[in-house]
Amino acid sequence: KLSFDIAGRINSSKGVSPQDYISELSSRDDKFKRTHSKFQVLYVELLIFIDKVCNKYGIDYWLGFGTLLGAVRHGGFIPWDDDADIYMKRDEFYKFREAFKKENPKDRELGCLDDNPDYPGTIPRYIDTSTTNIARFNILGTCAAGVVIDIFILDPIPSDAEAQRRQRNLFNVYSDFVMPYYSFSSRNDDDYLSLYQEYYDK
After folding, report:
1. Which strands sit side by side in the sheet containing 84-89, from one edge to the other?
2. Which of 150, 103, 93 has its CA nearest to residue 127?
């Protein structure tokens, strides 16, 4: 179980403290790096809220990708990292979704297909609606365009190799229809490409 108080974990790591880290970034002359550090402060605030909610409601989550690497290796963020990611099992995400509705935090939105059929992605996002951060993700959809924490859902996969192949191909087809600004078809096996026309005709 890797859920923990983010600020406390960063403070107790072998890296610099969040305050020293952000201060050091902000003291550099490069305007981009100063702006970058402001984003990272927002990410810490968002992560701390997620952690508090998860602890309060007994929800398991894990830091993911560069967010985990930054916390362990850098005691904060990878200097060039510009986002934050966490993992949740699907049943844990649904618990978090209900907890989010109960807590109803100000200037926050939880974007997902379960609540918004026009949501343009398969990855739920915890969004700070008091900020603006427009990406391809926002152009074709109806979700808020702010600083986000990506919540990657962990689903079980079958042990059988052919069943794994089928699940991967079907998910790629599904993702192409949900997220037309990305292309997943190049990852599909040829015998599944006909599904695009089949589903499009429906």
Report:
1. 62-63, 84-89, 147-154, 125-128, 108-111
2. 150
How far is CA 125 from its chain centroid? 5
Instruction: Assign 13 a pLDDT band (cuts: 50, 70, 90).
Output: very low
pLDDT tens digit sequence for 98-150: 999 999 988 888 988 888 877 777 889 898 888 766 666 666 656 666 778 89
Say if residues 63 and 10 touch (Cβ distance below 8 Å): no
List C-alpha distances in Å: 149 to 12, 31, 86, 159, 172.
23, 24, 7, 31, 23
Extract the tokens encoding 36: 């970058």
Task: Tell me if 28 sits within 8 A of 79, measured CB to CB.
Answer: no
| CB contact at 8 A, 59 and 1 | no
